[in-house]
Batch of 2 targets.
Target 1
Amino acid sequence: MKELEAEVKNAVAARAARVKAVEAELAAARKAATAAEAGVRAAKERYESTVCELEAAREEGKVALASVRERDAGVEKCTREVESARSRVDKAALEVSSTKSALAAAKEAIAAADRDVKRLAEERDAAVASAEEAEAGVRKKEGEIAALKKAATNSEKLLQELNATHPWIVGEKPYFDRPHSDYDFTRNDPAKAQARLSELEKQQGDLERRINKKVMGMIDGVEREYHDLKTKKQIIANDKAKIEVSFCPCDTCCGLDKARARPSPPRVCSSFFTLPHTPPPPPPPHPQKVMAELEEKKNEALRTTWAKVNKDFGSIFATLLPGVHAKLDLTESGNVLDGLIVRVSFNGVWKESLTELSGGQRSLLALSLILALLLFKPAPMYILDEVDAALDLSHTQNIGHMIRTHFSHSQFIVVSLKQGMFSNANVIFRTKFVEGTSTVLRTIPSGSTLLGGKGKKGGELLVEDGEKEGEDEVPPPSKGRGGAIKPPSSKAASGGGGL
């Protein structure tokens, strides 16, 4: 405000000074007007300009004064608002203080209520637990009562059965529980006796699981056999003595009994007669030697199997993927028992890992290994369901060729959707929908071993409707799935295996 007032005063002083200067100039100009008209015109122009500037300065002063007044009014308004805000703040502070006090009192009341609720909840839980425990106790007692009633009923039935089974109980009943008698139940506790009986039955059960009860019967049989053998041995010994006294040609062991003056009983000289001697059986081989022989036979069987499977594995894989070789190699230990490693080579370069192969190549490798294992002990029939689904057409055709060359004595049923597999089949069954009905079409392609010659043409047979003429070659199946089968024939060996 002071600055604005100073500016206004300065502007008024400047205006007064300028007015005086203009008046002086005007006087000088009037004096000079007589001297020169040109100077008068210039003075008039300067005067008019000065007057304009003076008017502009006056207007600016008015505007500045109005602005100062507005600012003063704004300052007064702000001052009033500040005072009003201060009063509201003081009032709000009082309200906050009272609210805090009320909040603290409410929190204390809530805490007290929480403590009461917690105490009541604990009392409720204790009451519920006590009620549940009481109910459990009641149920337990009811169960015990029912069990006691059932036991009493069973005891009565058992007592009746015992009285009926053992009539002596009725006569001996007066002596029951008499001291120093056989029925002194105080000295001989039936419960302890029953527990002892249960323990002995348990021990008997444990022994039955570990001991063969049939051994006693076996011992009786062995004893009888032993006595029979002793009897037979005695008979043989008596027969031997009789044989010995029957023959003796020498004089050393025969002659007269000098004491009795009669011939002594003849005896058999060991140089003349001996009973046939049966050599003892050879001792059984040592268990370690038997185990070593079995281990050697096992290793020999594994080596033979490995050699056969390895050979078939390489041949089959080379047929499926020409120019590529595969083998089952030994591990670093050199022992077939430690496992085998599948190795694959392309153009004589062995791959370090099977991850370098593509998905189709790995599929062919797995199929080759499975078929090599099956070829070790061939089966009469195999069923393959779309093993060529993820393979190229050339690989599919190689599978058919491999089956024909390596499994000449086996029959294959193959489900496939690719023409390469059909070209090696002897019989093809195609399934498709005809007017909403599933039909099966049997086709014998040209070149099949069932035709008996290469010059004969194949034909088609609709299984449901009968026979009809067909083409020499089967077109690729556009609908449904195709299956190929090679029926048994005597020309399988010469003509090669088929599908």
Target 2
Amino acid sequence: MTAASDSAPMMTVSSIGIEPSRLLDGTSAAASGTAATAAASGAAFDGAYLWKKSRGRSVAVKTFLMDQKIVVGVGNIYAAEALFAAGIHPRRVAGSVASARYERLAGEVKRILTHAIARGGTTLRDFISPDGAPGYFEQELYVYGRAGEPCKVCATPIRVVVLGQRSTFYCPRCQR
């Protein structure tokens, strides 16, 4: 644990109500960064927290959601899936998302991370967890890695753009 992480509590997947022994990318929550978080101010991870943190922010909502200063542990895959489930276009300006939509997004982040942990995470390429098991959540992805394939909800082809130097997958019909 770094000195900086000793001084400021971190918003991790466990502090949003999920109790994994490690984050989904295989790192421990303690080693994942030194982000200032809602936990430091006593706030809960919910839509109100995301809405407050997004005020005045002009970055894309996906970039905002993946900002480790906002919440630790939401990576590219889970951000794409949570935004899809919440019906939010990943390029929407974070500061323009309504409070009610952030409430839905926070719920989807919790639901998707909980489900992914139960399924063993997401195995891409040759990743194997420390216990030797692959993750099975990849088989249930709605948008990530599915560019050109039909949306599982509306059959519109999934699109891909680059945001923050990361491939970003979305359905142009389901996500607005």
